[in-house]
Amino acid sequence: MFEPIARIPAEELARRHASLRRHLQSVAPAAGGILVFSRLNIYYLTGTCGQGVLWLPLEGEPVLMLRKGASRARIEAGIGCIASFKSYSELPGLCAEAGSPMTRTVAAVMAGLTWQLGTMLAAKLKDHALVAGDHAVALTRMVKSGFELDIMRRCGEKHHRCLYDILPGRICPGMTEREIAHKAWEVFFEEGHMGILRMQAHGEECFLGHVSAGDSGNYPSAFNGPLGLRGEHPAAMVMGNAAKVWRPGQPLMLDIGFQIEGYHTDKTQAYFAGPESAMSDDIRRSHDFCIEVQEWVCDNAKPGTTPAELYAGSLEMARRRGFAEGFMGLDDNQVPFIGHGIGLTIDEFPAIAAGFDLPLEPGMTLAVEPKQGIRDVAMVGVENTFEITENGARCISGDSYRMLCVE
C-alpha cells in the first residue's frame, strides 16, 4: 500500500555491485563474496538503511537479511532477496535458500561490527573463514557516479548559499557561539539540510560542526581536525559555547557540513567582526595564504596525481612561506593531513596525507581544508569540497573564499 519516498535507480545499484565485486577480487582474492553490516553501507548497496547484514556474492543475487525493518526494505530496496533473521547462525541457510550460498571464505566489512558482534559472528559461522573486506568498500565508494555527483553538486550549492549569502545577515558581533550555531541550523534547515551528519571513523562524532570565535579556534581539541572549539560541554564537544562571545576584531570560523539525500559537502567559512580596515596583518596574511594553498591543491589535483603529493606540496608551501608553525593546527591540535574524501560520510577514503599513493581519478570528491593557527588570536582558513574531473579539480561548494566582514 505504501510507495517509496525515493529509490536508487537499478542501474546505479548494479554499477555499485559490479565495482565492489571487482575491488573485492584484488583486496580479498580468496573470498567468494562479502558480508556488509553497517546501515550506511547497506543503504549504499541496496537503497534501504537496514539493520542487519547484506551478502553480496561474486556470482549470484545479493541477499539482504534484517533483524528489523524487512517490510520497509521491501518498499525501498532495489534488490529482490530480503529475509528476516534473529541469529547469525541463520545466515548461511537463508543465503542458500535464496540461491546464493555463502562460500567457504567470506569477506566482511569488519568496521561495521563491534568486537562483541564480530566475535559472535565468527563463532556462529565457524564453518566459514572470515577475511577483511573493508578496503574494497572504501575503494568502491571513493569514486562517485553521475547520480551521486548530481546530489553532491546540489548540496554544495545550498551549502555556499547558506554560509556565504544568507548567514552573514543573521549574525553579528556580540552573539555567543551557541547563538551563532542556532542561527546556522535555522538557515540550514530552511535550505533543505536533512538534519544528520555522518562520520565513519570509529569514535568520531559530529553535530552541525564547529563554531569557533576568536581563540576558540585554537582551544585544545579531541576531534581529528585542525580547528579547535570549546563546544557545548566536555560531554558534547560540538557546535559552540554559550559563554563565548564573538567580539569586535575577532575572526569567527564555521566549519560545518551540509547533507541532502545522504550525501555531504564540507565547508569552512571565515568571518571577521568589524570592517576590513580593522583586520590585522597576521589575520589577513594567514587567511590569504590558506586560499593560496587551496588554489594550488585545486590546480594540481588532476587524475594521476596522488594525495600524498598534494600533501607534501602543501607542507613545502607552508615551510617556504614561513607558515609551518600553526599550519593545520597549533601544538597538539595540528593534524597530519590537509583534506579527505567525502560522500555518504564526512570522512571518506582517501585522506590527503602522506602514504596515500593511489592516484586521483575522475569522480572522486575531496574536502580540502588548509587552516592556519595564529597563537593567542584565532585560527583562520578555508575548506571546500572539490570534484575531480578529467581536467582537474572543480569546486562544488562555492567560488568565493574571502573572509566576510560582519559589523
UniProtKB/TrEMBL annotation:
Domain of life the protein comes from: Bacteria
Pfam families xref list: Creatinase_N, Peptidase_M24
Residue ranges of every copy of the Creatinase N-terminal domain listed in the record: 19-143
Coiled coil regions, renumbered to chain: none
Peptidase M24 domain: residues covered: 151-390
PANTHER family from the UniProt entry: AMINOPEPTIDASE (PTHR46112), XAA-PRO AMINOPEPTIDASE P-RELATED (PTHR46112:SF2)
Protein name: M24 family metallopeptidase
The organism of origin for this protein: Pseudodesulfovibrio alkaliphilus
The organism's taxonomic lineage, starting at the top: Bacteria, Pseudomonadati, Thermodesulfobacteriota, Desulfovibrionia, Desulfovibrionales
